[in-house]
Amino acid sequence: MAVAQGRFITFEGIDGAGKSSQIAAAVDWLQGRGLAVEQSREPGGTPLGERLRELVLHEAMDLETEAMLMFAARREHLAARILPALAAGRWVVCDRFSDATYAYQVGGRGLDKAKFEALEAWVHPGLQPDLTLLFDLPPEVAAARVAGTGEAPDRFERERRDFFERVRAAYLERAAASSGRIRVIDANRPPAAIREELLALLQERYA
Ligand SMILES: Nc1ncnc2c1ncn2[C@@H]1O[C@H](COP(=O)(O)OP(=O)(O)O)[C@@H](O)[C@H]1O
Ligand SMILES: Cc1cn([C@H]2C[C@H](O)[C@@H](COP(=O)(O)OP(=O)(O)O)O2)c(=O)[nH]c1=O
């Protein structure tokens, strides 16, 4: 007998891209179709992962330590939540996954691509999200949004414009290499327009 298998949907983009409220809209839409949906985030998603998140967002560290902590948190997230949920037929909507490590650690910070690929093959062999929504916008627009929140910036949000230019370019490069999985959304528009495109995309794919 075929076992129901949930779908894995991820959201990506530079800090301030506006993922948060759009993720909520996507989850609402999927739940409205009667699906069981789990919303999560990376780094994080489990008690251990959230503790690792605190460290990587606020503690200065070596680049390879940073990359391995991202993947350690991810391994725990997969083992404790994502894989059991998908196996039980639940859908998982996650704020960031390995594309973020590619964009931030490889693109932004210069981590050796072969080391990223080795970690990815170790931590989730044969598994990629079913669909990834990449929120794309100029770093200066995103930075103004982050500044507008009035919240204290973390270690990544304090990076300079050229860092986010590299992160953005790495995301777009990965999207070009996986155009069936990664859909680029122009995030430099009002929230309502983005929401409309996002829901149309989900409708086209999953209705
Ligand atoms: N399309 C948009 N246009 C203008 N401001 C936005 C838009 N989307 C989100 N924002 C604002 O930008 C800030 C960052 O949004 P958020 O959803 O937290 O981004 P992310 O989760 O991608 O870092 C918030 O203050 C939010 O209200
Ligand atoms: C998952 C992941 C996140 N990050 C970074 C990107 C973000 O700056 C930060 C946390 O992401 P996020 O939860 O999107 O932060 P916020 O809700 O404040 O926008 O971690 C990496 O550098 N590598 C990774 O693999």
Strand fraction: 5-15%
Global mean pLDDT: 97
Major sheet strand order: 2-3-1-4-5
* Global Rg: 16 Å
* Count of all domains: 1
CATH class: Alpha Beta
Describe the structure.
Helices cover about 55% and strands about 15% of the residues. It is an alpha/beta fold. The chain has a single domain (about 10-205), classed as P-loop containing nucleotide triphosphate hydrolases (Rossmann fold, 3-Layer(aba) Sandwich). A 5-stranded parallel beta sheet has the order 2-3-1-4-5, with helices on both faces. α2 packs antiparallel against α3 and α3 packs parallel to α5 (about 115-125). It is globular and about 45 Å long. Thymidine-5'-diphosphate binds near residues 43, 100, 105 and 156.
SSE layout and pairing:
Layout: E1 8-13, H1 19-32, E2 37-41, H2 47-58, H3 63-87, E3 91-95, H4 98-108, H5 113-123, E4 131-136, H6 139-148, H7 161-177, E5 182-186, H8 191-206
Parallel strand pairs: 1-3, 1-4, 2-3, 4-5
Helix pairs in contact: 1-8, 2-3, 3-5, 4-7
Bound molecules: adenosine-5'-diphosphate and thymidine-5'-diphosphate.
Thymidine-5'-diphosphate is lined by residues 15, 41-43, 70, 95-96, 100-101, 104-105, 156.
Any descriptors?
207 residues; alpha/beta; Rossmann fold; 5-stranded parallel beta sheet; 8 helices; binds adenosine-5'-diphosphate
Task: Summarize it.
The protein is α/β, with parallel strands linked by helices and 207 residues long. The chain is built from 8 helices and 5 strands.
